[in-house]
Amino acid sequence: MTQDTHLLEVSGVTVQFGGLVAVDNVSFNVQRGELLGLIGPNGAGKTTAMRSITGVVKPVAGRVVLNGKDISNLPVHQRIRKGLSLSQQLVRPFREISILDNVALAAGSRYTQSPLKALLHVSAQAERTRARDMLERVGIAHLADQMPGIQPLGVLKRMEMARALALDPELLLLDEPLAGLNSKEAQTLADTIADVNRQGVTIILIEHNLSEVMRICQRLVVLDNGRKIASGAPRDVMAQPNVRAAYLGAESTEASNTATETGDAHA
Ligand SMILES: Nc1ncnc2c1ncn2[C@@H]1O[C@H](COP(=O)(O)OP(=O)(O)OP(=O)(O)O)[C@@H](O)[C@H]1O
C-alpha cells in the first residue's frame, strides 16, 4: 500500500472528557475508494473518533491528515470544504420544507456557511437539480416534493444521506445509519451505502448491525474502551478472540456490570 492511496490518516488520536479517555492513541488509515467499518461495543469511542476527524471534538494528542494535508487544527467548516461530510445518527430535517429543498439547502451550504445565504442560493435551479440527483442516488427521488415530517425513518435516513452527499464529499462519515430500521430496511439501506461507495465516495461506516457491516465493508477497525484492538478483513477481524471478548464483555457488562479485559492492539 503506497502512501498516496491513503485518503485519510488518523495518527495517535487521543480524546479526553475530563478524566475519561474516550479515544486512546488510535491510529488507522482509510484508502481512497474504501468502505471501512468502524465498530466496537457501546461506549467504545467510535462516535468520538469520528467527531475528532470532522473537528467537532478536539483531541489532546494525535493528528488527522486528509489528502496528505494535516487538518488537525482546522475548524469543522474548513474540513468540510476539504472533502469531509458527516451524516449524523439522529436525523433532524427542516420540517417546513420539502425533502428536495432540505437537500438543496445542503447543496447551497456548500457555497456559503450562512443558512440564510444558502436559502437564497438554493433558488438557483442548479442546486435543485443537484438535490434531485442526490435523491436519485439514495433511491427516494419519487418523494422529492413530500414533506419530511410524514416520512418513515428509512426515508429520513436516506434524505440525511442525500444531504451529506450534496456536499460532494471525498470522504463520507456515516454514524449508525441503520439504527432503528427493521432487517429488510437495513439491508436495502446498506445496499444503497455500498452503491454510493461504488460510485466513488470513500466511506467510514459506524454501525452496530454486524451482519450488514460484514456484508458491505471491505475492512474493519475495531475499538474497545477507546483503544483500537483489531483491524483487517471483516472475517479475520471477527474471528479474533479479543474482538469476540470485547462484544461478549459488553453483553456481560450490561448484565452484571463486570469489567472485561480485551487483548492487545493489532496493526
Ligand atoms: N461530550 C461528551 N462528554 C463526556 N463524555 C462523553 C462525551 N461524548 C462521549 N463521551 C463518553 O466517551 C465514551 C465514548 O463514547 P462514544 O459515544 O464515542 O462511543 P461509541 O463507541 O460511539 O458508543 P455507541 O456505540 O454507544 O454510540 C463513552 O464513555 C461516553 O460516555
TrEMBL record:
It holds the Pfam family ABC_tran. One of its GO terms (cellular component) is plasma membrane. The keyword Metal-binding does not apply. SMART domains: AAA. InterPro entries: AAA+_ATPase, ABC_AA/LPS_Transport, ABC_transporter-like_ATP-bd, BCA_ABC_TP_C, P-loop_NTPase. Gene3D superfamilies: P-loop containing nucleotide triphosphate hydrolases. The keyword Ubl conjugation does not apply. Residues 8-250 form the ABC transporter domain. Keywords: ATP-binding, Cell membrane, Membrane, Nucleotide-binding, Transport. One of its GO terms (molecular function) is ATP binding. Coiled coil: none annotated. Transmembrane segments: none annotated. GO terms for biological process: D-alanine transmembrane transport; L-alanine transport; L-isoleucine import across plasma membrane; L-valine import across plasma membrane. This is ATP-binding cassette domain-containing protein. The lineage of its organism: Bacteria, Pseudomonadati, Pseudomonadota, Betaproteobacteria, Burkholderiales.
